[in-house]
Amino acid sequence: MQTYTEVGSAPIKARETVRHRVVIVGGGTAGITVAAQLTRKGIHDIAIIEPSDKHYYQPLWTLVGAGVAKAEQSVREEGRFIPKGVRWIQDYAVEIDPEQQLVCTRNGTRVHHDFLVVAPGVVSDWDKIAGAADTLGRNGISTNYAYNLAPKTWEFIQQTKEGVALFTMPNTAEPGYTIKCGGAPQKIAYMAADYFRMTGRPVKVIYATAGGVLFGVPEFCKVLEGVCDRYGIEVLTKHELIAVDPSRKVATFALKDKPGETREIEFDMLHIGPPQRAPKFVRESPLAHPDGAMVGFVNVDIHTLQSPVYCNVFGLGDAAGLPTSRTGAAVRKQAPVVVNNLIQVMNGKEPNKRYNGYTSCPLVTAYGRMVLAEFDYENKPTPTVPFINTCKERFDMWLLKKYGLPWMYWNLMLRGRA
To answer: What is the C-alpha separation between 126 and 133, in angstroms, rounded?
Structure first.
C-alpha cells in the first residue's frame, strides 16, 4: 500500500491533457492489483497516477522494527509492477472533478477518464501529536509506519536496557481518522517484550490505546489479553497520545473517558502508531463522505464499492470509506469486487458482486509465533485456512508472515493472480 504525501494546493497550470478509458489514482497495493486484474480480463486503455518510483510491502516493517528483516527486503521498483500496456503517469494527483471526469496532477497534467478507481492510500497526520514530527528517528522515538524509521525502532529497542518502553495506538473513533493495519502498534509491543524477556532486561512495556479494548474482535481480544499477561504488559485504554516532549522523555495523553483531563507518562523509548486520514485531494473532492465516521474518505457502497453518486467511480483500499480494518488482505478481497462491478458498469449492467468486509491481521505475538485474525464487517471470525485454529499462537503462521505472505504479494497479488 503506497502512501501519498500531502502536497500544497498551488494553482494548477495546464501542461498536458490526456484521456484514458480507466484511470486509477494510486499505484500501491490496491491500484496495481486492480490494474493487473483488469488487464487479465482484457480491459485496455488504463492509466495509473502514482508519484513514487518505489513500491513497498509495508506489512514487513513490523519485522524490520523487530530486527528479523531488513527494510531493503520490503521495496521494489514501481515500474516492475505496472502491467504491460498500462500508462504510468508518475505524478501526484491534487484534484478530482467527477463531474468533468477529470483528475489534475501537481505538474498540471489533466487526465480525463470514462471510469475512475480511487485508491491513493492514507497519510499520517503527525501534526495531531505536538512535538512528534520533529523528533521521529531521534531521542528513542520512532514508528514502523515509515520505511526509513522502522530500522530506528529496532535500534531503539536494542538500546533500551531498562525503564519504560511505550507503544501507542491513535484515536480511530474520531471521524475522518483511521490507521492502516490496526494491529501493527501492538505487534511491535509484543516483539519488544519478547526481546526484553529473552535478554533479561528489566524493561516495563506499556501499550496505550485510545480505544476502549485491546482488539475489536472478542475471540482474538481474549487471546491477546493472555499475551499481555504473559509478558506483564500494562494495557492502558482510552489514552490518546496528543504530545511528545523529547527532552523530558514524556508523552502526554488525553483521557477519553475523562474529558479535559490529561496524563503524562515518562518513557525511555516510544513507538507511535500515527493517526491517519485520506489525502487532502480526496478529503476536498465531491467523492468524499461529507460527514459521519467516514468523513473525508471516498464515499462508496460498502458492498459494491461503487460511488453512490457517480456510477463510473469506484474506491477501495485504505482511503475507501469502509468500516473495516485497512490491510492488504482486505484489498485482496476488495479488488475482484471492483474489477467485476466496474466491468458490469462498462457493459451497461448493475454491479453484482459484493464485499463482506473481510480483512485479516497477522498478529505477531513473539519471535516465532503469530495469531491470524480474520473477520468481516460484523467482527465475526472468518477463517480461510481449513483445519487450523488461527486463534492460537502458531509457528506455521509465523512462517506464513515472514516468508509466505511476502512471496504471495510480489508474485501473485500484484500480478493479478490472487
So the answer is: 6
- Digit-coded pLDDT (tens) for 57-116: 999 999 999 999 999 999 999 999 999 999 999 999 999 999 999 999 999 999 999 999
For residue 269, pLDDT beyond 60: yes
Q: Output phi, psi for 45, to 5 deg.
A: 60, 60
Query: Which three cell numbers mark 397?
Result: 503462521
Catalytic residue among 221, 228, 311, 361: 361
Flag whether pLDDT at 10 surpasses 90.
no
Tell me how far the alpha carbon of residue 176 is from its chain's centroid: 14
Catalytic site includes residue 221: no
Nearby residues of 193 by Cβ (< 8 Å), 6 or more positions away: 165, 205, 231, 232, 233
Dmax over CA atoms of the chain, in Å, equals 65
- Please give the torsion angle defined by the CA atoms of residues 376, 380, 384 and 390, in that order, rounded to the nearest 10 degrees: 130
Mean pLDDT calculated for residue range 243-249: 97
Catalytic residue (one of 181, 228, 311, 391): 181
Unique residue bearing C-alpha cell 509466505: 404
Query: Would you list the DSSP string of 223-275?
Result: HHHHHHHHHTPEEE-SEEEEEEETTTTEEEEEETTSTT-EEEEE-SEEEE---
Give the domains, in start order, of the chain with CATH numbers.
16-122+278-357+410-415 (3.50.50.60), 125-274 (3.50.50.60)
3-class DSSP assignment, residue 401: helix
Is 32:81 a contact under the CB 8 Å cutoff? yes
